[in-house]
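How a chain folds remains the central question behind the approach discussed here. For one protein, we set the task of working out the structure tokens from the amino acid sequence alone. The sequence in question and its structure tokens are set out directly beneath this paragraph.

_____
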Amino acid sequence: CVNLHVNDNNSPRISPDKDFMKDYQIQEESLKGFTINNRIQPFTPVKIGLITDEAAQCKFSNKPSETVNANEVFDSMEFDLGSSFLLINHNITLALPSELATPQVLELTNNGQHTLYVRCKDAAGNVNGKDYFIRFSIDPAPDFSPPEIISAIKSGSFVNSGATPNSVNFPIVD
């Protein structure tokens, strides 16, 4: 249930969810965005959290907007930030592809620096007029960490007798 004010003409105000991102050092630029100052280890999930001052849907893109029409920009953004529901807390954990940590990509991305561009839309249809940025960097140091299984089959699961063999994929962070 969302409280929709008849005279709501303001877009949601966005700020970092520092509790969700407690492992990071956040440098905030008021109402414009923030930078994660820690270099994120290759193949490590990146936790992104935002708080809006009213229930909103947030989306993000890895490209800055090229048009001034806020609704067009919002509608064209590729990814929901956590959910497509109207929420106050918007949290997502991104598993970065291993290709982002290769020397070639690190060189092309200004030594592993990445920026996400966010816009949020409230129940009244108000969208942020400018992109809210989230910047982070991948540590260019070699990765010597062992692979890690990030999900597994629930214990107590059974296979029917007479079941035909199937391939099973286990997602790992390598």
Observations:
- The longest strand covers residues 46-61.
- The chain has a mean pLDDT of 82.
- The CA atoms of residues 27 and 35 lie 5 Å apart.
- Helices lie at 70-76, 103-108.
